[in-house]
Amino acid sequence: VKYARHMHSSSIYSFSAFLLPSCDIAVTRKVVQVYRKWILQDKPVFMEEPDKKEASLEDAEKLGFSETDSKETSTDGSRHKRSSSWGRTYSFTSAVSRGCVTEEENKNVKAGAQAMLQVFLTNAANVFLLEPCPEVPMLLKEQVDACKAVLIIFRRMIMELTMNKKTWEQMLQILLRITEAVMQKPKDKQIKDLFAQSLAGLLFRTLMVAWIRANLCVYISRELWDDFLGVLSSLTEWEELINEWSAFRLFFLSYPLSGCVLDSPKGATVGRSFSLSWRSHPDVAEPMRSRSATTSGAPGAEKARNIVRQKATEVEECQQSENAPAAESGCLVAEQQHISRSSSTPDLLSPYPANDSCCVSYLVTFILVIGNILIFSYLLSQTGSSVVPGESISSDTALGYNNEAELSMNPWPACEEDPELNTPTDVVTDSDARHWLQLSPTDASNLTDSSECLADDCSIIAGGNLTGWHPDSAAVLWRRILGILGDVNNIQSPKIHAKVFGYLYELWYKLAKIRDNLAISLDNQSSPSPPVLIPPLRMFASWLFKATTLPNEYKEGKLQAYRLICAMMTRRQDVLPNSDFLVHFYLVMHLGLTSEDQDILNTIIRHCPPRFFSLGLPGFSMLVGDFITAAARVLSTDTPATPHSEALTILGSLVCFPNTYREIPLLQSVPEVKEVITGSEDVKHYLINILLKNATEEPNECARCIAICSLGVWICEELAQCTSHPQLKEAINVIGVTLKFSNKIVAQVACDVLQLLVSYWEKLQMFETSLPRKIAEILVATIAFLLPSAEYSSVEADKKFIVSLLLCLLDWCMALPVSTLLHPVSTAALEEQHSSRAPLLDYIYRVLHCCVCGSNTYTQQSHYTLTLADLSSPDYDPFLPLANVKNSEPVQYHSSADLGNLLTVEEERKRRSLELIPLTARMVMAHLVNHLGHFPLRGGPAVLHSLVSENHDNAHAEAPELSSEVFRSPNLQLFVLNDSTLISYLQTPSEGPAGSSQGSTLSDVRVIVRDISGKYSWDGKVLYGPLEGCLAPSGRNPAFLISGWQPQGLGAQKDFSQTEEGDDVLDKLLENIGHTSPECLLPSQLNLNEPSPPPRGMNRDQEKEIIEVILRQNAQEDDYIQRCNSDSAMKVASQEQPSPVEPRGPFYFCRLLLDDLGMNSWDRRKNFHLLKKNSKLLRELKNLDSRQCRETHKIAVFYIAEGQEDKCSILSNERGSQAYEDFVAGLGWEVDLSTHCGFMGGLQRNGSTGQTAPYYATSTVEVIFHVSTRMPSDSDDSLTKKLRHLGNDEVHIVWSEHSRDYRRGIIPTAFGDVSIIIYPVKNHMFFIAITKKPEVPFFGPLFDGAIVSGKLLPSLICATCINASRAVKCLIPLYQSLYLFALSIRNFTFVIFFSDISWHA
Description:
An eight-stranded mixed β-sheet has the order 9-10-11-8-12-13-14-15, with helices on both faces. Strands 6-5-4-3-7-16 form a six-stranded antiparallel β-sheet. Strands 1-2 form a two-stranded antiparallel sheet. Helix content is 44%, strand content 7%. It has 51 helices and 16 strands. α7 runs parallel beside α9 and α11 packs parallel to α21. It is of the alpha+beta class.
C-alpha cells in the first residue's frame, strides 16, 4: 500500500482492498486512511482536472455509456441486497475507464477529482456490505470502526469539498443503498443486529446532512427524493432515525428557517404544490409555488384548491374517497402513496406566493427563544424590524400550562422553555453536528439579500441558480424533511409512534412560539402592523385525526395526538377553519369525549381549557354536552393523575351557557343513534347537580374551591335572569354548610361567595322573602359554632376566618332593612318551649358579645345564641356531610438569615391574634350602633366618619391643619376614656342673632370622639340659661330658655321659713338632729337642746358671774341696735337680685359639660385622663387621622383596542368601546375628584390625574378605580404619571379587544401581582383569564377560565378585585384589614397616652 501511494495507478489497485474479507479489515482501514489523505489533504496528480482537449474526448466517450446506464438504472428493484457490483453505475465505469492506463502510456494521467470521488464512493461502500461477524467481537468492532472512518470521510466531503451534480447523486445513491442494506431488520426479531445498531445513529445523521447539503448545492430530482422517502419510511422502526429526524426538523426552526415556515393569513393565490413541481424534468426545474396550510379556511382559496386537485388527480380522488375522510397523511409525496386525505384538512405542503420576486416578503420580524440556540431573524427594510433577544411571548396559557393546579413557581419569567419540551436525553448528538449545517458567510449574506437580488433568481431547489440557504430552500427542505418518514401513522412500533407525536407536539410548540412573537413591539413605543405570514399551526391536523382512529396498542401516540389537537384548537385562530375541517374536528372530539378509555378523557379535559368555548367556532355548542359528561366521568374517578381542577374549571365556565344558548344539543355516544336531544333545562340541571356533588365531595382543595365559586357565579346568574330555579336553595345550603368546614381556604371561598350575594339581597328576597334573613342566621349560628375552638386555637387561620365571618355578617346587617333584622327568629326549639322569640338583631348582638367576653360567658343559659340545630328546616340541612380535602398548602422553609426577623414577627403576630376576635367584635358592634339603618347619610357613601379636626372653627388658632399652635389654644383639651376612646373637647363661639356682638353670645362645645369604629364630631349648646325678664341689658337669645319653663316671683320664697311666733327654732333644730342623728349626741346627753352639766372645777358663784357677763353683753347689744334703728343715717337700702355675669373662661362650658356627664367625679377619674399636649401627641394624632376607617383598595383598569401591542398606544387611549364604557360604569359611580371626600387612592384634585374616576363604597370598604381612559395623556409627563398610578396597583383589570392574548410585559411594572383579563366573546359573554404570582393564594368568585354574561360582569369583577387585593395584602407581615383603625386606637392609647397623662386636681 505504501508503494502504491507513489504510483499513479495505485488507486486502481487500492480499490481492491475494499473487497477484502472481514478478517483483513485492518488492511482496509489503512487504505481508508490513504484515501482520507488524498481527498482531504494532499491531492495526488491523478485527482487534478484534465486538460480541455482530453475532457472533450471523454465527453464523446460518455455518450456511448448513457443508454446502457439508463437501462440498468431503470431495471433496478426497490430493494437492494449486498453485492460487489451494485453501485457500479456509469459514473464508476467511466471513471475506471479513464483511469485505467498503464504507466508506459502516461505517468501523469489527470483523471479529475470528481471522477476519483465517484470511484471512491462506489468502492468504499463495499466496507458496509461485508458480512459482519457477531461471533467475533474484535472483528465486529474493527469493521464498525472501518465503517465509521468511511462515514467520516463522507461527512468531510459533504461539508468541505465542491462536488458536481453527478458526484452528489452518486453520494446520495451510495448512502441510500448503504442505509437500506445495513439497516434492514432481520426477519427473526430475536436476532439482534449489533452491526446495524452500532452504525445507526451516525449513518442516519450522515444521510440527513448529505441530503440537505446536496439540495443546497445542486438540483436533486424528484425520483431521488422518492427513493429517499421510500428508504426512510421503511426504516421507521429504528428509534435512531426518529431522533435524527426530530433533531433536523428542529434545526430548521432554530437555525436557517426562522421566519420562512409561515403562511399567509390573508389567503394567497393558489399555486402548484411541491409534489407537482417535482414531476417536472430534472434539468428544467420549475419555480416552486404552493399554497398556505392555514388558508384552508378561506372559502375562495379552498374552492380553487379543490378544483385544481380534482382536475389534476382524479384517479387519486377516487381512491381517497374509499378511506376515512379525516385521515389525511402528512407525507410529502402522497400522490404515490395513495394516502387518504380530506378535502378540508390542511396539507403538509409549503406555503409560498405565486410571485417569486416577492421572496423578500418572507423575511418577517419574529422573536424565538429556544434555550441557548442561536436565532436568525430575516428583516425587511420596509418594516425596519430588529431582533429583541430578551422578551418573548409565552404560549403556555394557550397550551394549558398556566392553570391553578400547575402554576409555575418561578416569579414572572419573561419567556422560558417548557422543561417538558427539551430534547430527549436519548437522542444521539455529535459534538460537531451543529457545525455540519452551519451557515457560511456567503449563505448568511444570501439570507439578508435585498429584494432586487432575490427577484432575479431563486434557489436551486426551486428551479433557480442560487446556492446555499435562502428562504425558499429553507422552507422546502423543512417541509420535505418533516414528511420524509411518510405517513407517521403507518409506523409499526407503538413506542416510536408515540415518540414521533411527542416530537410533533414539540415542533408545534416552537411554531406557536414563533406565531406569538410575530409583530410584537420591539421598543414598546409603537405597535407594528399585523404579520403578512404566519406559521401553519394546523398543518398536522390530518396526521392527528388519523392517529385518533388507531388501535389501542398505539394508545400513547393517540394521547399525544389528542393533546396536540386540543392545543391547536384552543388557540386564537388567525384564519377560521372551514366547515369540513370543523366536522372532522368535532367528530374526533366527540369520539374522544365519549370514549371508554379514561386516559383519553383525562388528556382532553386536561389540555382543552375553557378557552375553546370562548373562541366561538361555528357549531362548538354541539360539544357542550359531551364536555359536561366527560368532566363528570373524570370527577367520578379518584386517581392522582385525574385532572379534577381542569374538569371543574370547564364545568364552572359553562354555568352561564344554558341561559344564553337555549338549545344545547346532547349528542348520543353511540354513532348509530341519529336522535339528538336538545334543550337548556336538562343541561342546566345535569350541570348543577355535578357541581353540587363536587362542592361537598371533591377531595382536591383547588378543585373544591373552583366548584364553590362556580356555584356562586351560577346563583348570581339565576338571580340576574330571574329564573327562580328550584336548586338555588340547595346551592345556598351547600355554601352555608361549607362555612364550618375544617379547611379554612375552602371555607373562606364560601364566605366570599356569601359576601358577594350581599349585593343580590333584593333578588334573593324576591325569590323567597325569608332567604336573606336565613343567610344572616346561618352566619350567626356558624360563628357561635366555631367560636369555642377558634378562641383557644394556636392556628392564626382559625381566628382570621372568624374575623371574615364577622365582617360578612356586618355587611349583611348593613344591607338588610331594619325591619328584617327585627323580625323574630323562629326555631323549632323555641316553639316547643313556648318562650318569647327574640329578634334576629338580638341574636347578632349576643354572638358579638360572646366574641368579646368569651364563648363560655352564657353557656349556662340555653338558647342564648343560635345553634346549627336551630337552622334545621325542610329547605336547609346544617349537618350536610362534607368530605375531607387534601391540603395543598406548601410547607414554608426559611433561611437562617431571616430567622431572627421571622421570630420577631411571629411574636407580634401571636400577641395580636389573642385580641383579634374580641377587637373585631367590638368594632362590629360599634359600627352597628353608629350606622345601622342610616347609611349612607346625606353626604353620600363617601362620607362615613367625621372630617372635622381640632383646628376647625378654633378662634384661638387659625391653622389649616393640626399644629402646635392648635395645641397651645386654651379652649382645647384632650382626654382618654377607658383606655380605648380618645375625646377632644373644644369650646367654639356660637353664632348669635343678627345684629348681636360676638361677645354677647354663649359658646358651643364641640366633642370629637375617636374610638374603635371611627371618628365622630358632636356640637352642643347650653339649654339652661337666664330667666325670662331678668336678661342682661344687652339681651339674651330666647332660644336658650327651656321650653315651657315659667319664672316664679321672689315672694314665693317666704314660705320656706314660716314659723310660729315665740317658738325657739334653734331648740327645735337641735332636738330634731339629736333624734334623727343619735351619733351626734354626747355620751352624757339625751338631747342636744338640753343644757349640759356644769364643767368640773367650777362652783356656783363662778357660774353666776359668767351668766351676768353674758346678759350684760346682750343688753348692750340691744341698746346699740335700738340707737341704730332710730338713727336715719344708719339705715341700709333694700337688697336687689344680682345681675348675671357672662362666663369668660375659654374652657368653661367644656368643663360644665364634663361635670354634667359625671366625668369629673371621683369614681370616673380612674378611667378618664387628661393628656399632655406635646409634639409626640400631635404627631401620633395626625398619623391616626391619616388612617382610613374603612378597608381601601385601588384597582387599575386598562383598555386595549385591536392591534395595540405597546404601552404607549394602550396608555394613549382616551375612550373605549361602548361595551367597555358600560362595564366601567358598572364598577362604581363616577365621582368628581376635585370635591370627592372619600378614598382617593393617590389621585390628585388638581386635574393632573383626570377629572373623574369610578368609585365604589359600602360602610366597610372603599374602592377607587384608576381607569386609564379617564386620565390625561396629552404629554409625555402625563403618560409617565398615568403609568406611575396604574403600574403601582397590585390588581390590574385589562379589557382586551385585541385579537391576541394580553402580554403582561406590555405594562412594565414590578407590581401588578394579579391581572384579570377580560376578553369579549360572542353573545355578550366574556372570557376571564386570571394570572397571578405563585405565592398569591386562591381567591374568587371568578377563576381562571370563567365565562360570564354581561349582566354579571361588573359585580363579579369588582368582588374578585377586592378579594384579589386582600389576597395580595395578606402576604404582608402583620397586615390588618378592616379593623386597622381599631387596632391603631388600641396601640395609640397604650403606647402614647399612658406615658403622657397629666394629672390635675
